[in-house]
Automatic annotation (TrEMBL):
HTH asnC-type domain segment(s): 15-76
UniProt keyword Transcription regulation present: yes
Protein name listed in UniProt: AsnC family transcriptional regulator
Matching PROSITE patterns: HTH_ASNC_1 (PS00519), HTH_ASNC_2 (PS50956)
Amino acid sequence: MCARAGRGIQVCVELDQLDRAIIRELVEDARATYAEIGQRVGLSAPAVKRRVDRLQEKGAIKGFTVRVDPAALGWTTEAYVELFCRGKTSPADIATAVARNPEVVSACTITGEADALLHIRATDMRHVEQVIERIAAEEFVVRTKSSIVLSRLVDTPLPTS
């Protein structure tokens, strides 16, 4: 498995089945103790800790966080927005511009006609429109194409296998 470490450096980490099992357990419940994880994967708590420390050091585990329901925080509307950019707009320029919008929860360069795909969360449709208007006003944006999410069918943090 390759992961991005600091400053965009990619580090490849060899993961065995136990490492993958530990990561699965942490994805499911980042608050689980090393003893609880160890019991589920067949290791002692100190062995789990050593592996987690190594996985963090190598960049395979970036941190521990909580998953929240965006709707519970008022972010009830989401959209995917394709960006079509002028000439040779760099990914860095796109990233800098869209990062100024906290409603953009992810942004990726993509293949196909569009140059980038943004995932936006907002409080309502008017809010989505305002975000798209701000992004479309960037000098490098030629046009945008939006799709509103009606319902989430699958939403997992990682593949389970």
